[in-house]
Amino acid sequence: MNSSKLLLTLAGAGAAVATLLYVPQGCTPHKSPAAGADAQAAEKVYVAPGKHDEFYNFVSGGFSGQMSVYGIPSGRLLKVIPVFSVNPENGWGYSEESKPMLNTTHGFVPWDDSHHVQLSQTNGAQDGKWAFINGNNTPRIARIDLKTFRTTEILEIPNSAGNHSSPYLTENTEYLVAGTRFSVPLGENQDVPVASYKKNFKGTLSFIKVRPEDGRMNVAFQILTPGVNFDLSRAGKQGSHGWFFFSCYNTEQAFNLLEVNASQKDKDYILAVNWKKAEEYLKAGKGKRLKSPHAHNVWDEKTHSGTSTIEQDIVQLDPRELPGLCYFIPCPKSPHGTDVDPTGEYIVGSGKLAAVVPVFSFRKMLAAIEKKDYEGQYDSIPVLQYENVLHGEVKKPGLGPLHTEFDAEGNAYTSMFVSSEIVKWNVKSLKVLDRLPTFYSIGHLSIPGGDTRKPHGKYMIAYNKITKDRYLPTGPELAQSAQLYDISGPKMKLLLDFPTIGEPHYAQSIPAAQVAPNSLKAFKLEENQHPYAAKGEKFARVERKGNQVHVYMTAIRSHLNPDIIEGVRVGDEVYFHLTNLEQDWDVPHGFAIKGAAENAELLIMPGETQTLKWQPKRVGIFPFYCTDFCSALHQEMQGYIRISPA
Ligand code: CUK
Ligand code: CUA
């Protein structure tokens, strides 16, 4: 059955289920035969009022461009962290301080499509310092600091389009990678016919170095590749540390995937990259320095502001000239996920259109490389022989395998998009142990620590592409959905559904105990080095510089100061620099002004300064106020600004 047919069938089934389950008001619902089982599930996900969840779950927002944070097992939404898209709720991308964070070489780009979350690791285990997420559309990687749950760095990836194979990382967070999905022409002359694809279009794999002390990222080097499409990637671990594995499709190098089917070949590839070798080549001065402007945006916690610089150069390595750097492993039918098990020995390929799940052996790969046991070359890069690298195949796994994660007992869990199920199998024996449907059409799945050397197991979360009848209908546009499973026993068990913000692709979870104790409560006012901070009510004032009016405003329960502003004219640029003087946890103040079309509100955390720019266009009296109910006298936190004729 082809995938669209199956999807239609699923949709049909969904509608039927909806008809069965929808109980109009006034009817008595039938007692569900599964009531006993449901009560057990409820007990497992119930987190009593005032109690905390066991795990944080960081979920990519897909086309919302954000990251959301849930508690597991309750499925409660704790926070939406704005990353690549503006967020009027707290002024991200609207405040003068956060605007530079969304700068790129294309200018201000306040939207993206974020697919994959990666939590930082030390010695192959989660360390709770940072979360990384990719921007797929305008190629970027962001770093979120888990002390503040804020985006503190965004790096644009040069020579890339569709930053999909990203931001997977090595087991000491030495490198993050960013593999380009769309091959594109590189360099100065990009005005070429699309039909010249084979000649002019190239792929790149970026290796981003992460500075251990503060997480700061920079492009260490790029590997030039043939014009294929890179999809996903994973680093080796333990024995295979030093290698990275990238799945790629369209090895036909077709530029029109509709007319020329990109899946006509029986096998595409997983590209194995020896990044330790790359480091040696770099040291020996082998790379080519290329002009590749890219934006690098960094948030400073002392000034509470972002700055954007355009960096110019990168070093590119060409594997055609550098032996031992790259090898292709054949992988059946349009591989999507490529995942490495906790031991680092097994590499799982997932051909979207394949009837088996191939599992490769790292040791066999090394042996084949040693013996130069190649089936040939692809664009001057050696291609290993499928059978010689294969550990074995999972037979009849289901339809449309996409992604695999692991538990601590040597088992793997693979998502099946087309047959809409999760299949549990044993990595050594390759035997299928269990399968369970998802509702509906699962994409990624995630086990806490399931991509590390030390999976925590216990839960698995499915991130589904289709919601249909799972919740009360909300018109044609529905929230997307996650499902929580108990995987502590031999059989998987569905516990809970919870809706997500945007399309959830990959997500990761971490024990709350590794993050919660470090969570910051307030910024220290005395450390505030914002150039326009007013660190006490006595510093509140208005200063004019030409046509710029700077309002140094303070907020503390329960007044804004100054609260009456006059002497401002149409044509002036008004900057409201708000400093929140509070030092108590959970006392933000908000700020908004009538008719400020170019802005949203500000939400200023204790000890912090943020700026709203306003260009008044008409004469009048304009009220402003605090938007966050902060005390019994919150409604008194208000004021007026008078705008006079130019
Ligand atoms: S992709 Cu979304 S289901 Cu962008 Cu990681 Cu596989
Ligand atoms: Cu401050 Cu309401």
Structure description:
The chain is mainly beta and 646 residues long. It folds into two domains: 11-19 and 53-518, Methylamine Dehydrogenase, Chain H (7 Propeller); 525-644, Cupredoxins -  blue copper proteins (Immunoglobulin-like), CATH 2.60.40.420. The strands form ten sheets. Strands 6, 7, 8, 9, 10, 11, 12, 13, 14, 18 and 19 form an eleven-stranded mixed sheet that branches. A hairpin with a 4-residue loop joins strand 2 (67-72) and strand 3 (77-81). It binds [4Cu:2S] cluster (CUK) and dinuclear copper ion (CUA). [4Cu:2S] cluster binds at residues 115-116, 164, 232, 336, 402-403, 443-444, 505-506.
What secondary-structure arrangement, pairings included, does this model have?
Blueprint: H1 3-21, H2 35-45, E1 55-60, E2 67-72, E3 77-81, E4 103-104, E5 107-108, E6 117-122, E7 125-135, E8 140-145, E9 150-156, E10 163-165, E11 175-180, E12 184-185, H3 197-200, E13 201-210, E14 217-225, E15 229-235, E16 243-249, E17 267-274, H4 275-283, E18 288-300, E19 305-317, E20 326-332, E21 335-340, E22 346-351, E23 356-361, H5 362-370, E24 374-378, E25 381-384, H6 386-389, E26 390-395, E27 401-406, E28 411-416, E29 421-426, E30 432-437, E31 442-446, E32 459-464, E33 480-486, E34 493-500, E35 507-511, E36 541-545, E37 548-556, E38 559-561, E39 564-569, E40 573-580, E41 589-593, E42 602-604, E43 609-614, E44 620-625, E45 638-644
Parallel strand pairs: 14-19, 37-40, 39-45
Antiparallel strand pairs: 1-2, 1-35, 2-3, 4-5, 6-7, 7-8, 8-9, 9-18, 10-11, 11-13, 12-13, 13-14, 15-16, 16-17, 17-20, 18-19, 21-22, 22-23, 23-26, 24-25, 27-28, 28-29, 29-30, 31-32, 32-33, 33-34, 36-37, 37-38, 40-43, 41-42, 41-44, 44-45
The structure holds [4Cu:2S] cluster (CUK) and dinuclear copper ion.
Dinuclear copper ion is lined by residues 555, 589, 626, 628-630, 634, 637.
